[in-house]
Design brief:
The protein folds into two domains: about 160 residues, no CATH class; about 140 residues, no CATH class. Helices cover about 65% and strands about 0% of the residues. The protein is built from 19 helices and four strands. The strands form two sheets. The chain has a two-stranded antiparallel sheet with strand order 1-2. Strands 3-4 form a two-stranded antiparallel ribbon. It starts with 6 loop residues before the first strand and ends with a helix.
């Protein structure tokens, strides 16, 4: 409720000055989250706002939201914490990454979220089923959404996954914000790795995540020629495929039910052409002289188990269709074929292809430091420009300064 865009014109969202000028607060939040482990307790502390709706600032902003038909605002939720507010703020900032200032703010939000998902205590609270919050993510009414999140109260880890899916599906463009996508996928990776280490089964509609990742892979494949001229899209592809490898290898520890594991295989089989084309693309670039040759080779190696699933089930499904004289099978029939043929499926334990975000921590700190330095200099510059020297008594300031420099 405290962060509301003023206007939305087509896909360009004009963020108000209150949000554009919050870079300094974001920097302070990053410092607190990244360097002060005790701050996680404050960030995840649950509180009940007293007389929240009657606060003058809230009443004023509520009125502005009501008068703006182009904005879908979240409903009031008195039982909350700072993470809920931050997730909602991120959902606004991440809608517009076209300008440098907005892109930096969005990137810093991802860095903060990465630090939060690195923290064991924060992860444990975000996955606590007894702590459920209603997190209303902001959505632009002018954008077509393929993903509609469940708005019921849920653990914060589920809300964070919703936020990452919103970003994934909302920024697939030819000027792809690759660094932010890498952060987005790595945050999802961190959440899943925490669940694997602690045998946490998050009650979540994982099909939404799988479909979004496949959609992103399809986008990378479709615009590979344009995108690969400016960036290494194969590293992003590796991160995406590794998430599928995590579910394939450790799905029995992660997914809430055996049927969820069946649905994972169903999605891979249903969208097998995307994985086939990605494999052809990566294999072609791994055998050619290219600056992305190593990444393309690694991507093709990461697809081994996915291709094994596809090559195992596609012939069996075709045989079942021919045997039963069916031309258009329904989903339940395909799932039945999947369940009946697990025993004959052979997969490899791809420990090297599951990825490890810990190994990227030095690069993470280096990139974050350069971003922080850039944003601090911008905040200092903006602050200096905003000072009104005409109303300042410079003579009085000089006299006060002389008292400190010449105490005698």
């Amino acid at each position: 409720m405290l962060f509301v865009p003023d206007t939305i014109e087509e896909h360009n969202i004009e963020l108000p000055q209150e949000i554009r000028s919050m870079s300094g607060i974001l920097i302070a939040l990053y410092e607190a989250v990244h360097y002060n482990r005790n701050f996680m307790t404050t960030l995840t502390h649950c509180h009940t706002s007293n007389n929240y709706e009657s606060h003058p600032s809230v009443m004023q902003q509520t009125q502005s939201v009501t008068n703006n038909p182009d904005l879908k605002s979240p409903s009031d939720n008195q039982f909350s914490n700072l993470l809920v507010t931050f997730f909602q703020y991120c959902s606004i900032v991440m809608q517009d990454t076209k300008t440098e200032a907005n892109s930096n703010n969005s990137m810093l939000c991802f860095v903060i979220l990465s630090s939060i998902t690195d923290d064991q205590f924060a992860n444990s609270l975000m996955h606590d089923v007894n702590l459920q919050f209603k997190v209303d993510l902001y959505r632009s009414p002018t954008r077509r959404y393929m993903f509609v999140p469940d708005k019921s109260p849920k653990p914060l880890a589920a809300a964070l996954l919703d936020l990452m899916i919103e970003f994934m599906l909302g920024h697939m463009m030819k000027k792809l914000p690759l660094d932010q996508y890498m952060k987005c996928i790595s945050i999802i990776h961190r959440i899943i790795c925490y669940q694997k280490r602690n045998s946490v089964r998050l009650c979540y509609n994982w099909k939404d995540l799988w479909s979004s990742l496949i959609t992103l892979l399809k986008f990378l494949m479709t615009y590979e020629h344009q995108l690969s001229q400016d960036m290494n899209i194969y590293d992003l592809g590796i991160q995406i495929v590794n998430i599928f490898n995590l579910f394939i290898t450790y799905g029995d520890m992660l997914l809430p039910s055996p049927s969820s594991y069946d649905e994972l295989y169903y999605e891979i089989i249903r969208m097998h052409t995307v994985f086939d084309n990605i494999y052809v693309l990566s294999s072609r670039n791994s055998s050619a002289v290219s600056e992305h040759k190593l990444s393309a080779t690694k991507l093709s190696n990461c697809l081994i188990n996915i291709r094994a699933i596809i090559n195992h089930y596609i012939p069996k499904i075709d045989n079942w269709l021919e045997k039963n004289s069916v031309t258009t099978p329904v989903g339940e029939e395909i799932l039945e074929v999947v369940r009946n043929n697990y025993d004959t499926l052979t997969l490899k334990l791809l420990l090297d292809c599951l990825g490890s975000f810990e190994s990227n921590k030095p690069n993470h700190d280096l990139s974050s430091s350069s971003l922080i330095k850039l944003m601090v200099s911008k905040v200092v510059k903006d602050t200096r420009q905003s000072l009104k020297h005409s109303n300042t008594d410079l003579q009085q300031i000089l006299q006060n300064f002389s008292l400190y420099t010449n105490p005698s």
